[in-house]
Amino acid sequence: MTEATDLAQQAGDRDPRVGLRAVAALRRLVEQLEAVQVRAARARGWSWQEIANELGVSRQAVHKKHGRH
């Protein structure tokens, strides 16, 4: 998780260019991590509703985002 830690530190940089690039990279990382965890949950038989509850979103939102994978 060194990359994530480095990016989190860079996100607070005084230089907006550095900070914004770090925020964008963190956003991509979070999206990748979410997809991995949703696939893992589905593989273990979790319903879309259970996944949605943990992510704090609607069942429809999580299914729309991850249902095609």
Largest sheet: none
Number of separate helices: 4
Order of helices and strands: HHHH
**Portion in helices:** over 70%
Q: Per DSSP, what share of the residues sits in E-state strands of 2 or more residues? A: under 5%
Taking the alpha carbons of the first and last residues, their distance comes to: 25 Å
Gyration radius, to the nearest Å?
Answer: 15 Å
Helix/strand class: mainly alpha
For the secondary structure, the number of strands is 0
In short:
With 69 residues, the protein is mostly helical. It has helices at residues 2-11, 16-43, 48-55, 59-66.
Keywords:
0% strand, mainly alpha, elongated, 69 residues
Write the topology of this structure.
Blueprint: H1 2-11, H2 16-43, H3 48-55, H4 59-66
Task: Describe the protein.
There is one protein chain. The chain has 69 residues and is an all-alpha fold. Helices cover 78% and strands 0% of the residues. It contains 4 helices and no strands. It has helices spanning 2-11, 16-43, 48-55, 59-66. The longest helix is centred in the middle third of the chain and has 28 residues, at 16-43. The radius of gyration is 15 Å and the shape is elongated. The two termini are 25 Å apart.
